[in-house]
Structure formats: C-alpha cells, structure tokens
Amino acid sequence: MSEYHVPVLLQESVDALNIVPGGTYVDLTFGGGGHSREILRRLGPEGRLAGFDQDEDAVSNVPDDPRFLFIRNNFRFMRGALRAEGIRSVDGILADLGVSSHHFDTQERGFSFRYDARLDMRMNRNASLTARDVVNGYAEDDLRKIFRDYGELDNAGRVVKAIGEFRRRKEIVTIDELKEAVARCIPRADENRFLAKLFQAIRIEVNGEMEALKMMLEQSLKMLRSGGRLAVITYHSLEDRLVKNFMRSGNFGGVAETDFYGNVSSPWEVLTRKAVVPSAEEVAANGRARSAKLRAAAKK
C-alpha cells in the first residue's frame, strides 16, 4: 500500500468523518487503500464501507474484508452506483483529490514530466480522450483557457502560441516533445513549478476533474443522512475554492441563500473554519502532501 500511495492527512480526514461503528461510509478515491483501511479499523462488524476508483490498477489494493465493497467507477457516478448496491444514504463521505504516487511513478501513464512517455494522463485507461488529443486537437483559445484556469499559468498565451507553432510542424506525441515545444516559455529559475502547472492543467481537462468534483459535491448532499460528514482533501486553489464555497453555501458561487428576514440558509454546518493542512513532519516525510488542504462539513 505505501508503495502505491502514502495517504495524506490520514488521521485528520478520518477523524473529520466522526466514524460511527455501525455506520455506512464512502471512500471516493480508494487508490492505495490507506484511508479505507483506517476507516475499516474504526468500524464495527456491522459497519460498511464502499470504495470508488476508476483505475484498474487499484483493484490489487482491495482489502479482504466482508465490510468493504469496491466499485470501479468514477466518483461522479457515486449516487447511481451506490443505489445499484442498495445503499440509499450514508453517514460519511471522504475524497482525496490528489493523484496517487502510483500514477506519477508509473512512466507509461504519462502523468509526470520527469519521464519521457506517450502523452496520456488518463485515470481510466478505457476513456477515449488523452493528453495527446488535448495538446494537438484543441483550438488555441480553448488551450489558453485551460492553462489559465486549471494551471494558473501567467504566460498561458505564450505557451499556447509556442505549442501552436510546434504542432503545425509535427504532432506532439511524447512528453519530451511537449517540453521541447514550450521550452522558450519555461522560467529558468522555476522549471519544475511551471511544468507541474502545465501538466496539472492538461490532466484536469483529460479527466474532466472539475466537472466530476461538482457532480460529486452535489450528490454528496443528497446521499448523506442528517448529521453525516463530508471530508475533502484538495491540492490546488480551484478545487479548494469550489469545496469551500459549496460547504459554506450549498452552491459553487459561495453565496448562501437568505430567508425573508435575511437569515442565512445553508444545508451544511462547516466544521473547518480554516482548511486543515499537513504538519511540517508529514510534509518532510511525504513532499507530495505539501499543497494538501482538508475541509469538512456536516449536513444539517
């Protein structure tokens, strides 16, 4: 499990769920199973846990435990998949939105700029859209928006222009070719940060991550029982803003509805006024936890 992925904010996130021994819980991002194993450790014999993961590689990490149900699907389909298993309401939902170490470290998956490989970045290898399709097939205006919104690149226009010039000469097939295409746009003193943002933007688009997050948040409100807990770990500002706004107001704009008398009406009780971040010790042990933020709320 530890080689596949080291769970981030493990105790803090599972604590936020306030596990009831006989309750029903959902781990929407099963991955290496670290969070799931901690939830199972706290559950009693009557408790149940469903774990979601769309990646076939995660199947090898499924625990041999009769209380655990593995669902190989994208968490955007949470509600329908759970109802198909006879689960109509749950006591807690956990989502760790980070890409697992396994994906970054598996060269042929194309998630990391540290290796050369074919441009892919699909979480679900049965999906049709790849990073190669995005980089070569998207209009420049669309690429500019993706790099600006999902990667928060200050020089998104220059990057798109460089990619456009390169792909008019030849198709960009590999990671090294993409790096070559944008080479003149990379800040000398901050190469890794720039490439991390660029690859993040493409990955988010390939996997429809922002749309999936919105669908998951809306469905969580429908699936949780009154008093049920939602805990979400994010890794970049766009995700964190969506989660924060939704927990504050029940919508993605972050503006709570008010009644005739001006009283604020939100379906959530926010449990984390400020996001919980990893300790210095955790970051030292697992550098990939550095940007993690945990937010939690209880359904009213």
Write up this protein.
With 300 residues, this protein is of the alpha/beta class. The mean pLDDT is 93. The chain has 2 domains: 183 residues, Vaccinia Virus protein VP39 (Rossmann fold, 3-Layer(aba) Sandwich); 79 residues, Putative methyltransferase TM0872, insert domain (DNA polymerase, domain 1). The chain is built from 12 helices and 9 strands.
Briefly say what this structure is.
The protein is α/β, with parallel strands linked by helices and 300 residues long. The chain has helices spanning 10-17, 34-42, 78-84, 101-105, 131-137, 140-149, 156-169, 175-181, 191-206, 209-223, 237-249, 280-285, and strands spanning 24-27, 48-52, 68-71, 90-96, 224-234, 257-258, 264-265, 268-270, 293-299. A hairpin with a 5-residue loop joins strand 6 (257-258) and strand 7.
